[in-house]
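queue> pop job 88
queue> type: inverse folding (structure -> sequence)
queue> payload:
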């Protein structure tokens, strides 16, 4: 609603003018939601994770999460990922600056096995 304001040296007076309200004042033509702009990036269907023992001591040095990302346009992107426990506490983070082509791309984030161990938090983990 529009508000009118009057000022003088001694006081400020304001009031709101009532406006009419029309419910369902206009109906548009039918549109498909797919006709509207999609996000530049969205998760595709395939995702995986694996622990990697890079030094043969039977403990994971890295925890890798691989995601399929569907890009609307080709370009240089910034991808940041946080590895957290269900209560939201962050264990580690990773980032990459990939050039993604239009369509499905694969991104892999590597997290420190040492940081996961130091957190004392068992999975499942959230990305």
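queue> result:
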């Amino acid at each position: 609603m529009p508000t009118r304001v009057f000022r003088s040296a001694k006081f400020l007076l304001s009031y709101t003018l009532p406006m009419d309200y029309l419910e369902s004042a206009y109906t548009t033509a039918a549109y498909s939601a797919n006709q509207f702009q999609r996000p530049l990036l969205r998760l595709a269907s395939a995702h995986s994770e694996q622990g990697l023992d890079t030094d043969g001591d039977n403990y994971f040095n890295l925890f890798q999460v691989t995601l399929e990302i569907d890009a609307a346009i080709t370009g240089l992107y910034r991808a940041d990922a946080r590895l957290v426990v269900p209560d939201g506490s962050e264990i580690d983070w990773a980032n990459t600056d990939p050039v993604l082509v239009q369509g499905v791309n694969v991104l892999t984030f590597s997290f420190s096995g040492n940081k996961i161990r130091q957190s004392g938090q068992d999975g499942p983990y959230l990305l």
